[in-house]
Write a sequence for this structure.
């Protein structure tokens, strides 16, 4: 390859990265439409992950599975090219989750027993700056922490439901078995314990114990987020503390003077 061709290729890659950076992280109308489109696609993918136990016996399942794999791979590549620090992005837990999800999509038969972990994509999406950038509106800002708590709880419920279905109810039970798994999960998390359906053996008891402990913790966190006084998100320039009282003048951690914008303006 000649030097001119190599320079032209490098300039093309640089132009592509700049374009992707503007789409993923920009504030222009085109970037806004692109970011909303990626969020909607992500939500559709998550719905597919939830319905996987019902769809996996259908003849079109593998086609949909590989299509979703293509979308996830394209999104991962786009975010990687748009990043100013690729290695930092790769080291983040959300990137590890996306890589694992991609593997389960590329090898759906070999990794079938781990497919229930795909719903962690919902948690990964909730940690995305692209998603919460659109929740910085004045009316929605106070609900950000509560939204995080709801997403954490919903993700946990579907992960446990998938685990219970895979290891306790899967034997050809289809949709009915998945509903039974969800029923057991919700009854366990809420400590209702009707007892009409229980998980057998020591493994079932240990699963119920872990589910109850984590589930109660997530319920408490959700209640705190819903009922405690609202705080604003404003990173302190000195110590980085993000949550402050709406009328705070000084950071309660380091005493630095804050300049929190007034939502009434």
């Amino acid at each position: 390859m000649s030097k001119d061709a190599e320079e032209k290729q490098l300039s093309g890659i640089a132009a592509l990265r700049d374009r992707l950076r503007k789409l993923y992280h920009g504030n222009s109308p085109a970037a806004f439409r692109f970011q909303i489109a990626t969020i909607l696609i992500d939500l559709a993918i998550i719905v597919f992950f939830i319905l996987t136990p019902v769809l996996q016996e259908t003849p079109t399942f593998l086609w949909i599975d590989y299509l979703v794999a293509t979308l996830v791979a394209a999104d991962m590549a786009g975010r990687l090219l748009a990043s100013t620090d690729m290695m930092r992005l790769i080291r983040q837990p959300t990137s590890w989750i996306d890589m694992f999800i991609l593997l389960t999509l590329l090898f759906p038969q070999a990794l079938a027993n781990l497919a229930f972990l795909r719903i962690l994509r919902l948690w990964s999406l909730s940690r995305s700056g692209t998603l919460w950038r659109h929740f910085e509106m004045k009316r929605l800002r106070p609900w950000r922490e509560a939204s995080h708590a709801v997403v954490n709880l919903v993700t946990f419920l579907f992960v446990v439901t998938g685990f219970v279905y895979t290891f306790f109810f899967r034997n050809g039970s289809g949709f009915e078995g998945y509903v039974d798994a969800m029923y057991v999960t919700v009854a366990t998390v809420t400590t209702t314990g009707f007892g009409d359906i229980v998980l057998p053996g020591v493994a079932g008891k240990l699963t119920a114990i872990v589910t109850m402990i984590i589930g109660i913790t997530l319920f408490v966190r959700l209640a705190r987020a819903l009922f405690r006084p609202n705080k604003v998100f404003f990173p302190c320039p000195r110590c980085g503390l993000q949550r402050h009282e709406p009328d705070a003048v000084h950071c309660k951690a380091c005493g630095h003077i804050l300049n929190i914008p007034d939502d009434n303006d």
